[in-house]
Amino acid sequence: MNTLATTAEDHRIALLAALAITIHIAESALPSPLPGIKPGLANIVTIATLCIYGLRTAAWVVMLRVVVGSLLLGTFLSPTFALSFTGALASLIMLGAARLIPGQRLGPVGYSLLAAMAHMAGQFIAAYWLFIPHPALLHLFPILMTAAVLFGLVSGIIVAAMLKHIQ
Amino acid sequence: MKRRGKHLVLLILAALLIAGCSRPQQQRLHHAQLFSFGTLVDISLWGASPAQVEEAERIIHRQLQIMHNAWHAWQPGPLTATNQQLRSGEWFVCPPAVMPLIVQSKQLYRRSNGLFNPAIGQLVSLWGFHSDTLPQGPPPAATAIASLLAQNPGMDAVSVDGQRVRSTNPAVQLDFGAFAKGYAIDRIVEKLVDAGIGNAIINAGGDLRAIGRHGDRPWRIGIRNPDRPGLLAGIELAGDESVFTSGDYERFYEYGGTRYHHIIDPRTGYPARGVRSVTVIHDNAAEADAAATALFVAGPRDWYPIARQLDIKYAMLVDDKGTIHMNPAMAARVQFETADQPEIILSKEL
Amino acid sequence: MKTDLITRADWLVIAAAIALLPWLYSAFWSDNRGVGDEVHIVVDGKELPAISLQQDQTLTIQGSIGPSVVKIADGRVRFLSSPCRGQQCVHSGWHQHNGEFAACLPNRIAMLITGSAARFDTFSY
Asked: How many CB pairs below 8 A link A and B?
């Protein structure tokens, strides 16, 4: 019988993804004042992973969260999934771009803020182009981005505090 | 430190770019007015290349030329030749430019209970509307109108057999004034679509067909107020729709304090009474054209069944008291532009 | 490795994000999105039909003391010349924003730029 060889990193990814998925699902039960606004607390796991283990691990965690989370919630390949996937992809691209900057690295707060904003913008563009290309939707965009900035800051500060603790 | 700042600026620019993607595109509207063959055509093209704009203007010009030369009700051409032959009662080979109009209008004649009747060319001529200049009055003698009416000209008297046509009623004289423009607009739109133009409005003298959109929003159409200068309402068009309005203000003269307009009721022989204007939204422009006239003639009491028979889904009629009659789906689409909300009578759904 | 809670680069990102928000509101919450579509010219209290800013042209308008020349180009409009003494209207330059108002009061000519909200693509009559 063959066993699939797993590395320590695989275990780490699985553990972190499981944590992110748990937060993701818990959050989906929260009522939302506006469609699309969620605190994005799973972002905390992403950013912490990024700061400790790097982009590759963080990307795995994010993608596992989106796919497995949607499977568990029964939204896989649904419009909700498309939005969540685009948002995740946008935030990963943004984080990747931020990592490319030479010199002093951004801290968790900067990463978190960029990730949250890219996530929201990505979701919004997907929602606008794929589902409701109505100009009225554009009015929501500034509100959603304000929420993204707020939640991005809060989760960033949480991660920063967490990291300080670990050290 | 300095360099990092620069990179951060780049990063923020990238964020702006992402946000910017969801914003409307730049203005790419081509708007022009062509005056060809006595018709003012207002065209709007969104996102067309300069070559397409040129092609569109060529298509419109050519189609208006056909409309003017072939379907003119009183200047010599295929239609006047057809009318001459119709008087004989014999079979004759119909000019190919006229044939499709006869076939389609026969069907619309039947579906409108004869209220859209292009066979009353003699009545229209008697009223003096077969002229480039408006008549001054007086209106024709009642006996002259009555004797034309008694001959009962209608499209059912016109038979079609392959390329041949004949009329069993010598009083039938065709006037496609309430149809040719719509028919021409349909042909123009067909050819624009063939030329790869997907977003356009073709407005010929206040009657229009729109395809596609104005960038990120639908096309917006203002509907004239029949009572005073200015707008009655606005509507948005998406996809492929025609808007046709027939009004008593389009061609008319006043005599002895009475307005005599060009929309003749084929049942009475007189300009239709009780209506100021009718606006119809329909996919096909030729049908919208005929329907706007038929509903105008039908009047505030009878427009509904005629609209149903013509398969019109959106109709609005302004009666001579300024009351608006329309179906609920139309009411959901119009945005009134008047200072006061007009009185509205909703029909059943069409 | 010692990490600050918030690095200096973080502060830059935070500042940029916060600066972005007012811009988003102004860009997405005004229907006109800043730039106007047409100009309404009022001469001695009478309004001319609205003129599109998309079509470049030069208009000569007869005011109460003489002709004023108004130029429309690249979606903007300005007074090119006016027979007034102060020439304030000419010096005010180009106007293109929704709600912008320019006038030559001595010549009793005023113009107001309006946005797309009131604008129709075409008319049915």
From this structure: 44
Render pLDDT for A12-46 as a digit per residue (tens, 0 to 9): 888 888 888 888 888 777 766 555 567 778 888 99
Rg (CA), chain C: 21
| Confidence (pLDDT) at B10 | 40
Amino acid (one-letter) located at C37: D
Q: Please, which residues 170-209 of chain B have a Cβ atom closer than 8 Å to chain C?
A: 201, 203, 206-208
CA atoms within 13 A on the CB side of B29: 24
Q: Cα separation of B277 and B262, whole Å?
A: 12
Helix (H, G, I), strand (E, B) or coil at B32: strand
Residue from the list A142, A152, A156 with its beta carbon closest to the beta carbon of C25? A142
Q: How far is Cα B14 from Cα C62, in angstroms, rounded to an integer? A: 50
CA angle (B243, B245, B246) in 5-degree steps: 150
- CA B337 to chain C, closest CA, distance in angstroms equals 10
Signed CA dihedral, B305, B310, B316, B321: sign only: negative
Chains touching chain C through at least 3 C-beta pairs below 8 angstroms are: A, B
CA distance B225 to B223: 7
Query: Which CATH number applies to B29-69+178-346: 3.30.70.1290, 3.40.50.2300, 3.10.520.10, 3.10.290.10?
Result: 3.10.520.10
Measured distance between the N- and C-terminal CA atoms of chain A, rounded to whole angstroms: 42
Report the CATH fold assignment for B75-167: T-fold (1.10.3980)
Residue of C nearest to B28 (CA): C54
Write down the ipTM of this complex.
Answer: 0.85
- Contact (CB<8Å) C20/B12: yes
Inter-chain contact B224–C75, Cβ cutoff 8 Å?
no
The residue among B282, B298, B290, B284 whose CA lies nearest residue B350 is B282
CA distance A161 to chain C (A): 7
A152 touches chain C (CB under 8 A): yes
pLDDT tops 50 at residue B4: no
> Which residues of chain A make contact with C21, given a CB cutoff of 8 A?
142, 145-146, 149
| Nearest alpha-carbon partner for B167 in B102, B244, B112 | B102
